[in-house]
Design brief:
Elements: E1 3-10, H1 17-21, E2 32-35, E3 38-45, E4 48-56, E5 64-71, H2 77-90, H3 97-103, H4 108-116, H5 128-138, H6 143-157, E6 160-163, E7 166-169, H7 174-178, H8 182-186, H9 192-206, H10 221-230
Antiparallel strand pairs: 1-5, 2-3, 3-4, 4-5, 6-7
Length: about 240
């Protein structure tokens, strides 16, 4: 049985949904993709998986996003609140672009660029763990190759959600990565060193020695680095 709910999210203007979501236009349709004005992605919501479909129903200056949630489990009010919070985080919906535009108005080059990219907000990953894994994989290789490796990792170790005969994949959690061997991670095409880094970071999180998600609240890069060092993250250093 498939459960479906819909919510509407308002964004801080200006916000160009098409420009922002376009970064996923070449993504795997079973993982994360943007096609024909609709963005899709599986999110882990309060220990359940939900396929989240986003569509713009507003304008750049009066932005509104329609969010459809589909899951094989009943969708609660708390689930909808969590999805709204996550979507706002992923697409930086509360970011104040007007302040940025005001700061660059005396720079003709930047103003011209901003004009062509009006309303673009830099998207991010749902979790800090996903950002860390992506950053490790993407070091010293092309983005195209890195994305292929990331998709391979997701399909091999991520949880699956099957809706109406279609299977979708969620990003692997720290537990997913910590419980597999380094050689299994290498089989996705990663080097032994990168595989060690991924498993090591995941194990630190699972063991409670590293709270990556708490770093979202930390605004100082220096303090973040210090906290990572104290948790043993210094082991991951620069890849050779």
């Amino acid at each position: 049985m498939v459960f479906t709910e819909t919510i509407t999210i308002e964004a801080r203007a200006p916000f160009n949904f098409d420009l922002t979501a376009h970064i996923s236009s070449s993504g795997d349709k079973q993982i994360r993709n943007y096609t024909n004005g609709q963005s899709i992605q599986v999110l882990k919501v309060n220990d359940k998986l939900a396929l989240v479909k986003l569509t713009s129903i507003g304008t750049v200056d009066i932005p509104k996003i329609s969010v459809e949630l589909k899951s094989t489990s009943p969708i609660t009010l708390e689930d909808k609140r969590k999805v709204e919070e996550t979507v706002k985080f992923i697409f930086n919906l509360n970011f104040d672009l007007c302040s940025f535009y005001n700061d660059i108005k005396s720079d003709s080059t930047m103003t011209q660029i901003a004009h062509h990219l009006y309303g673009l907000k830099s998207p991010t990953t749902p979790t800090v763990f996903e950002a860390l894994v992506d950053s490790i994989i993407e070091q010293q290789i092309s983005i195209k190759v890195a994305h292929a490796l990331e998709e391979r990792l997701i399909k091999k170790f991520g949880e699956t959600l099957t809706l109406d005969g279609e299977t979708f994949y969620a990003y692997p959690t720290p537990i997913n990565i910590a419980r597999i061997s380094i050689s299994e991670i290498q089989n996705c095409g990663l080097s032994e060193r990168k595989a060690q880094y991924l498993q090591g970071a995941a194990q630190l999180i699972v063991d409670g020695k590293l709270d990556l998600e708490n770093l979202k609240k930390q605004g100082s890069p220096e303090k973040i680095i210090s906290e990572l060092d104290e948790s043993g993250e210094s082991e991951f250093g620069q890849l050779n």
